Amino acid sequence: MDFQVIGKVLPRKDGIAKVCGQETYPSDVVVPHMLYGVTLRSPYPHAEILRVDTSAAEAMGAVCVTPDDVPEVIYNERTVSIPEKTYCDRRVLPRRARHVGEAIVAVAAETEEIAFKAMQAIKVEYKVLPPVLDLERAMAPGAPALYEEIYLGDQKIAVENNVACERIITVGDPEGAFARADYIVEREYELPRVYHHQMETKTAVCRPEPNGGITVWATTQTIHNVRQLLGRIFSLPLSKVNVKKLAIGGSFGSSIQMNSIIPICVALALKAKRPVKMATSREDDVYDHTKFPARIRLKVGVKKDGTIVAADMRALVDIGAHQINSYPLLGCMAGWYASLYKWGDFRYEGRAVYTNKVPACAMQGYGNPQVNFAVESHMDLIATECGFDPVKFRLKNYVGVGDEFWGQGPTVKSIIKSCGVEEMLQKGAEMIGWGQRRPPREKTGRYRRGIGMARGFHTSGTGGPKPGEVIDYSSATIKINEDGTVDVMTPVMDLGGGTGEAAVKVAAEVLKVPYERVELSRVDTKTTGYDVCTHATRGVYCGCGAVYHVAQQVKQKLFEYAGRILEENPGDLELAYAAEKGVTIIHAKGFKQKQITIGEVARLAQIYSWGTIAATDSLRQKNCPPCFVAHFVEVEVDTWTGIVRVPRAILLSDSGTPINPDMVAGQLIGSLSRGLGYALYEETEYDLESGKLKCNGFITDNKIPTVCEMPRLADIQVYFAHTYEPTGPFGAKGIGEAALNSVASALNNAIYNAIGIRFYRTPITPERVLAALEGGDRDGN
Q1: pLDDT of res. 703
Q2: Which of 574, 643, 686, 705 has its CA 20 to 30 A from that of 724?
Q3: Residues with Cβ < 8 Å from 88, sequence gap 6 or more?
Q4: Please, what is the end-to-end C-alpha distance for the chain in angstroms?
Q5: Quick one: which of 781, 764, 667 has its CA closest to 718?
Q6: What distance in Å separates the CA atoms of residue 391 and residue 145, rounded to the nearest whole number?
Q7: In the prediction, which pLDDT does 210 show?
Q8: What local confidence, expressed as pLDDT, does residue 699 receive?
Q9: Residue 630 is inside which H or E element, if any?
Q10: Rounded distance between C-alpha atoms, residue 267 and residue 73, angstroms
Q11: 257-271, 669-683, 696-710: lowest mean pLDDT where?
């Protein structure tokens, strides 16, 4: 399909501001008469706060907020799910610290230096309680309890054996199906806690307003959910709470929830009756959030012809000290599992468990990379043990067009309408030289190379024919100015992947206006309708879907006004871009001589007092199409050092129509780096005595891949499948999180092909590789 701007590589709207250091991030915000806030954090993993003495800090002129100064509201920071499915256990400042680094007292002063000195002067009397830092011990009878009671929606519920929540799903008769299987393969996989490593830490600025309200500038992926939650916690009418939309320096899911310092900052500002700014250090941020770890046991039954007939997955998740919506996580993990392959009859059991560790939250995939590692490693294992070709085995069993897809677990189901899996697997196999791949037994010497592959997907949003447990709709406003330029107003956050550019391109394409004549407006919660959040890879499909929906309404309004002027039926008019004049015209179909520019229409509408040509509306997408990916990688294992190198990678994606093809490629290449870290390097390990991170929060001791660990750009190939999603704006669906999901799995499978050892736990560090090689362990754990 020939588009005017869709699929074209064009300058980013925020590009100049970002490269020149002129973009405004929350940390750049300065308000007159502003105080600076800091937090005192618990040195213990589990302790009751008996007494707080702030007198010395207050003698320095500091304003202090303790657990006694904040509202007695129990909430969940992440308000994406419907209330009756949301578990709540958090206060602004707790009376009982449940992990090392949890903020317990806040201080604001004229300078950061004074604030830190005042914070150090605060005296806290603790009653140290026994912590639980091990998943199995946490569930044991008699283990120390993190909570006796929490809330599910408005209902108080008891917590037993530190089990935060669980989900059990059975489809068909899996036990009967296993009895009919010719082969049954069962293994356990373990994925660790990993820090997000987003570039920007968390900042919040709160200014009390003369009318008793507040204005907030904060690091967030959802300005409207922050607004609503602050209104609820502090009993403020939403008309008096305004949250500004600012640029964000990356997030990877760490700001889907309202970050913990935001309500603390508001509490300080309301008590001080002055603006307050708080910015977390990197060390504080490392102690604030982490990727969900997972222990997954997977059992699969297969017939001799390669048909899967049964599966059973048991997932245990250590969620840490607080629920940041672990219940929907368990549902999503069920969905990622149920929608990768046609399992026949299957069972899923997921359990989330409290421990005295940093709270876990979404990070690039919300449980998908964890499930994918287990399933795709298992598919390779089955293929090896049963004598199937791994690519053909996947092609025989994948979920594709016409099949049911669980986009966000069992309550969000839709039918797949576009799928590039077959094209990607066949093309990837051709590009990597799959037919020439040798088995591990034929490889000798110090350096051994292997080729592996894996496939995955992610949902584009959380919509379905019927609304499920997840809130999902977006709003947009579009206005035609009197010179024919266009303003687009959307609350959808751009996390750096180009969602803003996509919104501009969608509006420009519908209205046939040049890209450079469409601009994104600065907005906030008072000037926009609701958008749930930039998460679930929904920015393009849902957020830009709303822009497309509203642009069509603006187009009809243009036709209505132009019809009056040209004395034509609006249905007999169409838009066109007159490149020779550099203007967008409306003309009679089949008779271009009868025309008028959209700027002239807008200007005459003003002169005749017809009104501004604009529209505001919301859209709930009734689908959540999977964006598919496949990864074919080559690794080189140094059998003397255990170091794994990646000389070559083939990255394939099906995102429908790529609205920003350069940014889709960027997502794929960037996610290769993130996946390398997840597979080979990253883990936030704990001292099981003190409850502290072994890295002490320092990223210098928490390594991630650099450009040195990546393949050369010339050795990375990107391929886009030729698909069109009929429910997406101009055939588009998402890519963001999907780009990561099968990277670690492909690397694990390639390592097996290189040295004949399969790993069931990440990271696959040089130490673990050497231990497996030296021990002759074919299962490297």
Answers
A1: 85
A2: 574
A3: 74, 75, 76, 150, 151, 152, 153, 323
A4: 50
A5: 667
A6: 47
A7: 97
A8: 85
A9: strand 626-638
A10: 13
A11: 696-710
Smallest CA-to-CA distance from 578 within 595, 564, 555 is with 595
Confirm if 541 and 625 have CB atoms less than 8 A apart.
yes
How far apart, in Å, are the Cα atoms of 18 and each of 13, 206, 389, 664, 678?
10, 24, 47, 19, 28
The helix (run of H) or strand (run of E) holding residue 87 is: strand 87-88
Quick one: 381 exposed, middle or buried, by C-beta within 10 A (0-12, 13-18, 19+)? Answer: buried
Cβ distance 491 to 224 under 8 Å?
yes
φ, ψ of residue 193 in degrees (nearest 5) = -75, 135
Q: How far apart are CA 296 and CA 371, in angstroms?
A: 8
SS3 (DSSP) at 374: helix
The span from the CA of 258 to the CA of 530, in Å, is: 16
Task: Please give the Cα distance from 37 to 54 (Å, whole number).
Answer: 15
- Per the document, the length of the chain is 781
Q: E-assigned strands of 115-227? A: 123-128, 149-152, 155-158, 163-171, 183-191, 203-208, 214-218
Give CA–CA dist 231/218, Å, rounded. Answer: 15
Contact, 565 vs 585, CB < 8 A?
Answer: no
What average pLDDT does range 270-295 have in this prediction?
Answer: 97
DSSP character string of 120-141? HH-EEEEEE-----SHHHHHST
Residue whose entry in the numeric block shows the structure tokens 């992990």: 99
Does the reported pTM lie above 0.90? yes
In angstroms, what CA-CA distances link 473 with 111, 255, 258, 533?
41, 18, 19, 9
Per-residue DSSP letter, 42: -
Q: Do 449 and 443 meet the contact criterion of CB atoms below 8 Å apart? A: yes
**Type of residue found at 612:** T
Coil, strand, or helix at residue 386? Answer: helix
Residue 514 has pLDDT above 70, yes or no: yes
- Nearest C-alpha neighbor of 126 from the set 148, 150, 94, 149: 94
32-45: average pLDDT:
98
What domains can be seen in the chain, in order of their start residue? 15-21+473-619 (3.30.365.10), 31-129+200-250+255-279 (3.90.1170.50), 294-465+623-780 (3.30.365.10)
The answer to whether residues 735 and 653 touch, using CB atoms and an 8 Å cutoff, is yes
Using only C-alpha atoms, the chain has a radius of gyration, in whole angstroms, of 27
Cβ–Cβ under 8 Å, residues 750 and 556: no
Amino acid sitting at position 644: V
Q: Alpha-carbon distance 266 to 575, whole Å?
A: 49
